Every structure is written in C-alpha cells, then in structure tokens.
Amino acid sequence: MTKIDPSKMMAQLGKMQEQMAQAQEELKTAYVEHSAGGGAVTVKASGTLEITEIAIKPEAIDPDDPEMLQDLLVSAVNGAISAAQALQQQKMMGQLGGLGGLGMPGL
Which end of the chain is flanked by fewer CB atoms within 10 Å, N or C? Predict the structure, then answer.
C-alpha cells in the first residue's frame, strides 16, 4: 500500500485550486455557438452558461407560424447550453486529472 505524504498532498491540492480558479476564469471568456433551422437561429453562450447573443435571420420570422420560430429558439438555446456544459466539463476534468498525483488512483 502506498503511503500518502500529507505535505505533498497539500501542495498538490493548492496547485489544483489555482488551476481550477484559472479554468473558471477562462470559462468566463470562452464562448460556444449553436444553430437551428439550417442557421436560421444562432445562439451564443459563455462557458458560464450565460446566453450572450441570439441571431435570427429574417426568413425565420413567419407571422403565420410563430411556433416554428419558438421551436428553433428552444432548440438553439438548448444546444448552446449543452455545448457550454461540455466545455465546462472539458476544462474542469482537465484540471481534475492532477488528482492522480495525490496517490489516489482513479480520480
């Protein structure tokens, strides 16, 4: 059984805290986009899951079919949020890879 060095563990945890804080800062300025309806509606979201922009092409606006635009908006917003969540997971899991250095295999 491997003995864990408490001082090494604390140093690694401190380093990981810094890396996680850096990743969170990077997510504030990272953006993803998702389109629906062949690009008729595009939604931009930050890595912190904030919707920052919605672009709607004029041809997507049909006064006789508002439900279509509503569906496109829902699809594009949900896609942008999913992409932002994937970006968050990628950034954070990259930082958690350092837990292996703590003598905790599998983390």
Answer: N
